[in-house]
């Protein structure tokens, strides 16, 4: 509950653009994952940078935390109030502000989703490449340093955010980055805010890099005799330097779930879903080379989806894999894991994870963006069975620890929120305290998304 | 002069690995550019991370600044002591520590130069791509966020540093980054230290990304009827999305200087020097497309250098362009400028810069890595003529201001040091004070390369 004075001041600023209704608070206390927290005290819907700056000034004056909210698709509790605070829902700041085709840049507001952006871009010959599966908001994707299926070719949000407008904890508004493709003038503030999960400020505008829609696109599904061969094929492909646009792994259990959920008829074996982008001559040669590599690992019957509908159908099925896996155990919820290891350690990481899951007694299909060493196990549990939930959480923790042991990271793309806070020191050691020092420098009162990412919070 | 107590303590730590000789101090007060400063009080040659950590503790105890030194090739005074301090010369920390071909990573010490690294890599099929021309140290390149001819394809140091070991101002040693190709776990500290110019800590180890040596390489020189056509050809090429490995512009004056200095016989007109990397089939198609675009802008007689010796000769001449231009006016020194603009503004930026130089009465050949909007004018002056020096500095300032007006940056790749400190507020506004806050958080005593990059120093 907000103190009366604070509430009155907030109403004076956001009358008609805020809510303290039980329904609104409950809606903004939900998460797609098993990570849960308390409810916020209020939800506000700013319409401008000035609104957000006023909100930050209010937050400072009344010592009330602010928590950014995009599309609510994050998986580690990033957008949930730990025990109090105001959720800043960017749904009314979702405009495309400026498309600059000649510079391959677009300026957008943070509440815009990636699918909405790509619809706007359709006729320009350009595309926004980062594709985490969920139709996340672009502000949220930047805050979480999201990536997904195409990162192996076009990079993550780190590589595709050119500049930001950010409202700081004290209400100051800064701009980072320039319209130039590169710069050596000063600390990389854009890079610092990307991945900072709302703990250093609230993103109110983004300038994003665009890429040309590829002239030729070819997608294929390759079936492998075993998980080891599929993973080894990925490793060989990446080490050969093939310019993969996408290279996704699905284990047999994932394939079964996708076939059932999305009406596919993929062979029941581990699969790689690959895509090539380029000019027709380049893609033809890439395909020839991939076919050769894949054959060496026992791949059979590569199925090429040249027609746009077939490709769309395959990728829609891939994106629905999470829901497909959930649907494979009615009533289940999932502990969604997310680790990323050096390519050289990928086979060992997947293999040990599979054995660990197999020994645990719960189901956990594995899939992932294996071209950059990133994979997920979707650990299915009955949420009302504390023993299953505990087993899954222990498995998830061991996956993260295994990733660290193999030289990887506790999160490839989902971020930390508070779901993975307990693993940060293991990954970063003393560098985690440096993150804390940076946090305190920009947010000395600890009002920006407290309880997430950095030490000593709240 | 160091206080006696401080000097005695330093000698106890670095006896035999330090110098206070006039020659050593003078050598470390030199710069390749017209940016000059005072002399350091001592030069030390650490051999290990522990040495650097001990030095930081000494610096904190005695309140003496530390200034990192790699190969001394920086152009904005980054490695110069403003009025006092100890230069940390990394010449004895120049080892390749670990090559991991399967992950395309290499771990190196900061004093290693990029050419030495590429010699070590020659038989591995891999290469380190960042190529600023000078044979800079890799630690210095990271600190300055260097780039160069190949950034248009392979990225700058921002994109090619995977992780760092850094000694902080208080002597703590941290590691940033992991062996995984990406991560969403916490603030991007690697990105923060890259480009921080030694103001946040001293880099003692780098993990760098490597790329496969391309199977096919083709280099060509294209002559254009005028600067406008050459620049417009670059813009069209980039907007078409051709995967250029290099695309360099040389104006006629630069061509004259290179012909004389490097024994070339290039036609006396504005030139583009382009290179394609890939598999033979892809490169052949890239070339066909580039030829078509270039012809549309009046390019004549594309000369292809397919043989490795011819390519090497061309790129050696390009890298010697700075020396060639200096040699074209005996006794001259140069004010080296470095701006980077959005591709859409490149033609206007180059055009206005040329007119400005032409009206100034001094010579200033223009060249640059135009594929990412980055270009340089080498403003030639008689260093003993204050009026010429003042004219050149005013031209340089107007170039930077023009770049800002056109949406660009005051530095594409050379960095800020103290040479461009006076332009930082114009580029960043309030964000510059945020850089200052981050600096104070990690270096509250202001001992790490004071007087550079951030406000309020020393």
Question: What quaternary form is this?
Answer: homodimer
The amount of helix of chain A comes to 25-40%
- Main beta-sheet annotation of chain A: 8 strands, antiparallel
Number-wise, the strands of chain A total 19
The CATH architecture term of the largest domain in chain A is: 2-Layer Sandwich
Query: How much of the residues of chain A is beta strand, in percent?
Result: 15-25%
> N- to C-terminal separation of chain A?
17 Å
Largest interface: A-B, 91 and 91 residues
CATH class call of the largest domain in chain A: Alpha Beta
CATH topology label of the largest domain in chain A:
Uridine Diphospho-n-acetylenolpyruvylglucosamine Reductase, domain 3
Radius of gyration of chain A: 22 Å
Counted by DSSP, the helix tally of chain A is 17
What class do helices, strands and sheet pairing of chain A give?
A: alpha+beta
Domain count of chain A: the total is 4
What low-confidence regions of chain A span 5 or more consecutive residues with pLDDT below 50? none
Notes on the protein architecture:
The structure is a homodimer of 458-residue chains. By secondary structure, chain A is an alpha+beta fold. The longest helix of chain A has 20 residues, at 386-405. In chain A, the strands form four sheets. In chain A, strands 12, 13, 14, 15, 16, 17, 18 and 19 form an eight-stranded antiparallel β-sheet that branches. Chain A has a five-stranded antiparallel β-sheet with strand order 5-6-10-8-9. Chain A has helices at residues 4-14, 22-27, 49-62, 114-121, 138-144, 151-154, 157-160, 189-193, 227-239, 252-262, 280-296, 308-319, 321-327, 346-360, 386-405, 424-428, 430-442, and strands spanning 18-19, 42-44, 66-69, 86-89, 96-100, 105-108, 126-127, 161-167, 173-176, 202-209, 211-212, 216-223, 246-250, 271-278, 300-305, 333-336, 339-340, 366-369, 374-381. In chain A, a hairpin with a 4-residue loop joins strand 18 and strand 19. The first copy, chain A, is built from 17 helices and 19 strands. Chain A has four domains: 4-91, Uridine Diphospho-n-acetylenolpyruvylglucosamine Reductase, domain 2 (2-Layer Sandwich), CATH 3.30.43; 94-212, Uridine Diphospho-n-acetylenolpyruvylglucosamine Reductase, domain 3, CATH 3.30.465; 216-323, 2-Layer Sandwich (Alpha-Beta Plaits); 330-405, Alpha-Beta Plaits, CATH 3.30.70. At the A-B interface, strand 9, helix 8, strand 11, helix 11 and helix 16 of A face strand 9, helix 8, strand 11, helix 11 and helix 16 of B.
């Amino acid at each position: 509950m907000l103190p009366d004075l604070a509430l009155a001041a907030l109403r004076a600023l956001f009358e008609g653009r805020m809510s303290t209704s039980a329904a609104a608070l409950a809606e903004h206390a939900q998460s797609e994952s098993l990570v849960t927290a308390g409810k916020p005290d209020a939800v506000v819907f700013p319409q401008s940078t000035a609104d957000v700056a006023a909100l930050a000034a209010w937050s400072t004056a009344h010592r009330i935390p602010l928590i950014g909210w995009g599309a609510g698709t994050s998986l580690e509790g990033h957008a949930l109030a730990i025990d109090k605070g105001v959720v800043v829902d960017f749904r009314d700041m979702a405009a495309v502000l400026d498309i600059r085709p000649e510079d391959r840049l677009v300026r957008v507001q943070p509440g815009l989703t990636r699918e909405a952006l790509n619809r706007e871009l359709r006729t320009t010959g350009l595309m926004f490449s980062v594709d985490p599966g969920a139709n996340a908001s672009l502000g949220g994707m930047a805050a979480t340093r999201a990536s997904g299926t195409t990162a192996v070719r076009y990079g993550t949000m780190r590589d595709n955010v050119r500049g930001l407008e950010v409202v700081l904890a004290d209400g100051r508004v800064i701009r980072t980055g320039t319209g130039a493709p590169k710069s050596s003038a000063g600390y990389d503030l854009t890079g610092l805010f990307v991945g900072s999960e709302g703990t250093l400020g609230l993103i109110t505008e983004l300038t994003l890099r665009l890429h040309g829609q590829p002239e030729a696109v070819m997608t294929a599904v390759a079936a492998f005799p075993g998980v080891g061969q599929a993973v080894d094929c990925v490793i060989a492909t990446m080490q050969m330097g093939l310019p993969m646009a996408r290279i996704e792994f699905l284990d047999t259990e994932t394939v079964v779930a996708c076939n059932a959920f999305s009406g596919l008829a993929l062979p029941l074996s581990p699969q790689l879903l690959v895509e090539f982008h380029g000019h027709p001559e380049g893609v033809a040669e890439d395909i020839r080379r991939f076919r050769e590599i894949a054959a060496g690992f026992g791949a059979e019957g590569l199925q090429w989806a040249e027609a746009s509908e077939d490709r769309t159908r395959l990728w829609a099925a891939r994106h629905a894999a999470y829901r497909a896996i959930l649907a494979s155990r009615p009533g289940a919820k999932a502990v969604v894991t997310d680790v990323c290891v050096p390519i050289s350690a990928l086979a060992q990481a997947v293999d040990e994870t599979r054995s660990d899951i197999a020994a645990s007694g719960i189901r956990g299909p594995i899939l992932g963006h294996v071209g950059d060493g990133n994979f997920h196990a979707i650990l299915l549990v009955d949420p009302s069975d504390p023993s299953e939930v505990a087993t899954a959480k222990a498995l998830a923790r061991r996956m993260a620890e295994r990733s660290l042991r193999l030289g990887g990271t506790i999160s490839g793309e989902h971020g930390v929120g508070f779901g993975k806070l307990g693993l940060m020191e293991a990954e970063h050691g003393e560098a985690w305290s440096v993150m804390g020092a940076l946090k305190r420098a920009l947010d000395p009162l600890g009002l920006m998304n407290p309880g997430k990412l950095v030490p000593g919070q709240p």
